[in-house]
Amino acid sequence: VIVDRIIGLTGFLGDTSLYRQLQVHECYATAAPMNLSAALLSAAGDGPADCLAQASHGVDVLRVPEPDFFVLGMKSYGRNNTFLLRVGYEQVDEVACAYAKSRSWCSGRGSRSAGGG
What CA–CA distances, in Å, run from 103 to 18, 24, 55, 98? Predict the structure, then answer.
């Protein structure tokens, strides 16, 4: 197989020093934000599933106790090895749409949220 780039997105824990002093409740097992970690572990408990079929869980699941702060992308999954870049992009879209002043550009994106502010 000939490739231009290899992106290794699992197998280690991201650097959390950026938000170490903020209120981010992390799961002791995965080191991911607690709400998302619980949602991922709950989904995994339903039996074997196609990891490519997963989608972002919405803004409300991405919220942490720190106001207006979100852990997105690979860091949001902690040690969990089922992260997909597509899900990371969906997370960013959902948060941006929840906080957008003009939501016309979202057109259905970020609809898994109760909104942000």
Answer: 29, 28, 21, 8
Q: Give the start-to-end residue ranges of the domains of the chain.
A: 17-105
- Residue of 58, 83, 82, 81 whose CA lies nearest to 70: 58
Cα–Cα distances (Å) from 21 to 36, 98, 111, in that order, read 20, 25, 31
| AA identity, residue 6 | I
Of 30-34, 49-53, 113-117, which range is least confident? 113-117
Check whether 38 has a pLDDT greater than 50.
yes
Q: What is the pTM of this model?
A: 0.73
Query: In angstroms, rounded to a whole number, what is the distance separating the alpha carbons of residues 19 and 24?
Result: 8
